[in-house]
Design brief:
By secondary structure, the chain is α/β, with parallel strands linked by helices. Helix content is 43%, strand content 14%. The chain is globular, with a radius of gyration of 17 Å.
């Protein structure tokens, strides 16, 4: 794929969110398959996000590769009486470079609010990692003509209180909720429209230069057969991949589509 001109200065990022799949052994086996099959040369930064229990083992298995490690979630306090939570201090200690925050499944299934997502994003940044901040609308919100307003509201809450220096390390992922795990995906033109709106919102709050450097990923049933068309849009800088990241062949094909 020929890189788009407007996004040429932004390195594509392809992140695999393994969700609640794979044991430690299965996760490490997938890493070995990825290391064997990933393109020898790629423009893309590649990230994998296994379950908490596999993070340390996957970090060890990634040795000798350029693939980076992400957690799927975080609590905003580093330490304390918060039974069952995992904080940014622990994630940094185990070797995470990125943390996904505000995924639609966290918002819908576990009641995370916009304010919660903002707290998590700032905690990740404070501990030297980069948040992948997820935003996206439901089908009902889209059909009611509220998609852009919902996404902007979520984005503003997530970025609230960040300094420009902190913001420079953040990544945004637009994931239309109606396309998560459904086999449906936004048309490339629809993805481009929302990504441009996200970049415009950032430009208003942080200036044009920050907006121009922000990486905005698309997430929502990304597969090898639609990756090139999505990644070819001028404001689409990569992908947050769910189901297709669970098999080395399909994930590597998406990485290859990034150039």
């Amino acid at each position: 794929m020929t890189p788009n001109v407007m996004g040429a200065q932004r390195r594509p990022l392809i992140a695999g969110n393994w969700k609640l799949f794979k044991t430690v052994a299965e996760s490490c086996a997938l890493v070995q398959e990825l290391k064997a099959q990933l393109p020898a040369v790629t423009r893309a930064e590649v990230v994998v996000a296994p379950v908490f229990t596999a993070l340390a083992s996957v970090r060890a298995a990634l040795a000798g590769s350029s693939v980076r490690l992400s957690a799927q979630n975080v609590y905003w306090e580093a330490q304390g009486a918060f039974t069952g939570e995992v904080g940014p201090l622990q994630l940094r200690d185990v070797g995470c470079d990125y943390v996904i925050v505000g995924h639609s499944e966290r918002r819908q299934l576990f009641g995370e609010s916009d304010a919660d997502v903002g707290r998590k994003a700032r905690a990740v940044l404070a501990h030297g990692m980069a948040p992948i901040v997820c935003v996206g609308e439901t089908l009902a919100e889209r059909e009611a003509g509220k998609a852009e307003a919902v996404v902007v509201r979520q984005l503003v809450a997530a970025l609230a209180g960040m300094t420009d220096a902190e913001f420079a390390n953040a990544v945004v992922a637009y994931e239309p909720i109606w396309a998560i795990g459904t086999g449906k995906n936004a048309a490339p033109s629809d993805a481009q429209h929302m990504h441009a709106a996200i970049r415009g919102c950032v430009a208003s709050a942080h200036g044009q230069s920050r907006a121009a450097s922000l990486r905005v990923l698309y997430g929502g049933s990304v597969k090898p057969d639609n990756a090139a068309a999505l990644l070819g849009q001028s404001d689409v800088d990569g992908a947050l991949v769910g189901g297709a990241s669970l098999a080395a062949g399909s994930f590597c094909a998406i990485v290859a589509a990034a150039g």
